Amino acid sequence: MNQRLRCLSPSLPETGKLDPHYPKVCGHRGNVLDVKWNPFNDFEIASCSEDATIKLWDIPKQLLTKNLTAFRKELVGHARKVGLVEWHPTAANILFSSGYDYKVMVWNLDSKETVIMSPVKTINCHQDVILSMSFNTNGSLLATACKDRKIRVLDPRAGTVLQEANYKGHRASKVLFLGNLKKLLSTGTSRWNNRQMALWDQDDLSVPVTEVDLDGSSGVLFPFYDADTSMLYVVGKGDRNIHYYEISANKPHLNYLTEYHSYNPQKGIGVMPKRGLDVSSCEIFRFYKLITTKSLIEPVSMIVPRRSESYQEDIYPPTASAQPSLTAQEWLSGMNKEPVLMSLRPGAEPLSPQPLPSERTLSVPTAPTSPHLLNQTGRLLAEDGRGPFSLPEEKAPRWAAEHRLEEKKTWLTDGFDIFECPPPKTENELLQMFYRQQDEIRRLRELVTQREVQAKQLELEIRNLRMSSPRL
Q: For the region Disordered, what residue ranges are annotated (predicted)?
């Protein structure tokens, strides 16, 4: 990667070779070694370089019209070139960097200074270059793979080593936390120089839980894990394929599924965040594949084949949103929180923690609401430790009667009451009755699905409220 970064439009229909005069991000005095988008700001990136600096860039929302040379912040602390940067997964404005000085530095970006000269924490436990960094789900643990052939699990705030792998049969180049499974996955080579994957227990790194040899190629393996679907994707530099695995908590843990083949080898690869996927086509993962021979970036979508065009709730569970659950100072003071979740259903918004409404507000509805939804909400609030969700009797009859009248109207299909009808006398009447019942069943199923989605959204809201207000 050279000293300039190119910001591309995420619009998939606009494909083709990029204009060589397209505006670029220019500012580093050496080659750029790593770039990471801020998970909580779609218009901010962090880049690190051989010039031993890290820079933060604000990308205009209308994208670039000319070369961007003015950085927002510069982080200066490493004595040698900086190879990796990583954003904290739950805390805002916390950035980690690792350099060829064998140090991992923790930066608090809340500072108003344009140039930050010293990190809030420096971790000095590595004896060689750090090759990979990965956080667990809530960011309380950091795993690193080092050129000294060791995998370490660190407390990122204290800088202490909690676990260390001294296993000589596996040389790791990449390491990855596997969601909430309390397991690590590393890719590297075996003692016979075969490309290999190893699965580790994060609380015991003495020996791997399992090892899988792939082939004798020399390209580095890059693992990508989707915790929502328990899918692992393994991409090799210089390869033409992508391997898929399913991760399970039970043996054999790594279950091979299939692989994607292409005619063009990839030199590098990136992924789209889950909230940027096309859920209408059942897309569950998307890669952006760098093909140097053709000077282009090719999108590769992983799609679950489904006949229905409606939203598929089972393949899109609630996922991490673009909202942090902690401030930088809260995390530095020792707090841990899980990510704020969101639904990928079109039109849904991130379920951000909000102040709890008063009981008076809860007890007086502002609009007629389905009794089924109210009952579901009442049960959820009762489980949360607060009083049951009840409706004053003097307010209930008016809108409840209207709702019963509305439900009575839905029983009519083409003016035909499906509950108070005489039995069919002819075959034609029987077929008409059957078709009407099928339509009604289909409509009721859609209604049940909508109610289930609303109930899940309420559960997520209550979960986020609990996380944001521990006293309640």
A: 346-370
Strands (E), 310-413: 319-320, 341-342, 412-413
* Averages of pLDDT over each 10 residues, the chain, 472 residues: 42 64 89 95 95 95 87 95 97 97 96 93 95 96 95 95 91 94 94 93 93 90 94 94 92 90 90 91 92 84 85 90 94 94 80 39 34 36 37 38 46 46 66 74 82 83 77 54
DSSP string over 414-428: TTEESSS-PPP-SHH
> In whole angstroms, what is the distance from residue 68 CA to residue 336 CA?
36
Q: Are 279 and 319 in contact (CB under 8 A)?
A: no
Backbone φ and ψ for 432, nearest 5 degrees, come out as -60, -40
Helix (H) / strand (E) element for 267: namely none
At 455 the three-state DSSP class reads: helix
Say which residue the tokens 């569950």 belong to.
284
Domain limits of the chain? Answer: 4-303, 356-468
Q: How far apart are CA 45 and CA 270, in angstroms?
A: 14
Q: What share of the chain is helix, strand, coil (3-state, %, to 5)?
A: 20, 35, 45
Measure the CA–CA gap between 341 and 323, rounded to whole angstroms.
9
CB atoms within 10 A of CB 201: 15
Query: Helix, strand or coil for residue 37?
Result: strand
Would you give the distance in Å from CA 456 to the centre of its chain? 18
Query: Any bridge partners for residue 84, and if so which?
Result: 98
Name every residue whose Cβ is closer than 8 Å to that of residue 154 and which is 6 or more positions away in sequence.
104, 123, 125, 141, 142, 143, 144, 160, 161, 162
Please choose, from the candidates 302, 299, 303, 277, the residue with its C-alpha nearest in 3D space to the C-alpha of residue 289: 299
Cα radius of gyration rounded to whole Å, the chain: 27
The token pair at 331 is 């995390």
What pTM was estimated for this model as a whole? 0.72
Q: What is the pLDDT, as a whole number, of residue 147?
A: 94
468 contacts 353 by C-beta, under 8 angstroms? yes
Name the one residue in this structure whose structure tokens are 């077929």: 431
